[in-house]
Fold this protein.
Amino acid sequence: MIVILKSGTTAEQTEQFSDILRKRYCVDIHTSVGAQSTVLGLVGDTKAIDVDSLNAFPIVEAVRRVQEPYKKANRKFHPDDTVIDVGGHKLGGGELQLIAGPCSVESEEQIISIAESVKKSGANILRGGAFKPRTSPYAFQGLRQGGLELLTEAKAKLEMPIVTEIMSADHIEFFNDVDIIQVGARNMQNFELLKELGKTDKPILLKRGLANTIEETLMSAEYIMSNGNENVILCERGIRTYETFTRNTLDVSAVPIFKKLSHLPVVVDPSHASGIPWLIEPLSLAAVAAGADGLIIEVHNDPPHALCDGAQSITPEQFNSLANKLFLISDAIKEVNNSKN
């Protein structure tokens, strides 16, 4: 249930009213102060709450019941876009952020070289895998803590925030210097991991599962948010369909749907979606046109000799060309939106 307060309601009135609701109905209150109004999200058993009794309060503009099972991730609870600041770079709110780097950290020279290249091209956040989930137990599993140390070195040298994937709640202590913790598609419904990440204060990049619905993805975000961490970034990375030409099928429609249903930032991963380097550019352009807040792209300085997913990586030169086009598309969209306002 959400309660929309009238314009001009003071912070003191809001808190007094919230206290009444907590005591009378034993619910948690999620407060969202937007540009136009203040919205109170009532989380808990709200079936017995009488809507008319709430409408009787002079500061109440409207009361609505929320049918969706996700509450904190719901745009009805939080009408304005959530903007997550990562080292001075904002995800959400209309600015396009590029996240780029190799699938796996392989060496100091490799990660530093790629970081320098992608930063020059406009990427503000460096990605790189230290712990790698692989289908085959015999495939390269990443450098683990050693990979995190190399990422941290690159972060310090290039002054770039870093994002890397976590595999287990037992590893959280190793991620102190990581700026965004990535939850991969295979772990999207690892609920115990999500609960523990909810107790951290770090932004979480949550990838949609291989065969999960949009609602299931939002419910996974809810696990994180309900445990205290509301800094969640949704990531569309393609889903498994009948099509075999591509590694997965990028669901571009998920971008505007996520944006309509939720206030959380949305990032698209065209590398894992396609698995084909020449498809990364058109899919990236489509994602930005659809409203994505950012892209996470695999870039390797020597794809044929990459230890992991080289076949779906693009070179720094290709990334530079793509980045120029992406910023042009982003600027054009902002100009159109501004002309409407």
Remarks:
- The CA atoms of residues 1 and 65 lie 4 Å apart.
